[in-house]
Amino acid sequence: MAKLKVGILISGRGSNMAALIKAATAPDYPAEIACVISNVADAPGLGIARQAGIAAMVISHKDHPDRESFDRALSSALESHGVELVVLAGFMRILSRWFPERWAGRLLNIHPSLLPAFRGRHVERQALSAGVRVSGCTVHLVVPDLDAGPIVAQAAVPVLPNDTEETLSARILRQEHRLYPMVVRWFAEGRIVETSRGVEVKDVPAGATLLFSAEP
Ligand code: GRF
Is 107 exposed, middle or buried (0-12, 13-18, 19+ CB in 10 A)? Predict the structure, then answer.
């Protein structure tokens, strides 16, 4: 069967992108990475993608007069690569309403908290200041409001007494790298269905949409 064509948008390091590229090398993985686009010219992730033989390009928001014209340029590039699902992976640019509306139901993001807690930036710092004992990451469908779309799956990790933003972030990131490839697989298999209560993942074992890790 034809594999689902995925386009990944990045702005930096690209470790989630790398996890998706790695997952997609498995012969039985139902998705392939059709292209990677960065809005930042020197994003380290671009080199990782190119090394893996993936079309990787820069579309700078600085070359566009407003958010929507930038978003339209992104969208055209994704379409020209036949992309069917867009995955935001550390993409640090706020999109105009136009983009999530254009890609409604076909646009995923990963966020380093258990949403709806701690939206926006400095997420690990917010979790530490709140004193929560558990945090994690969330993959959700993207809607025009920031970090507000229906939740597909989450991974939970402990917050330890001596954590810093860096140690907590690293613990969460390890789970992001498990969670995102799993959700993209489900999307490609047509299991992710929007319902009146949000999103349901069809025909997966009970509890599959929540990962736990007790690793320090
Ligand atoms: C991750 O923490 C992700 O949750 C957030 O941005 C970070 C991206 O990291 N949206 P990377 O570029 O994938 O390494």
Answer: buried
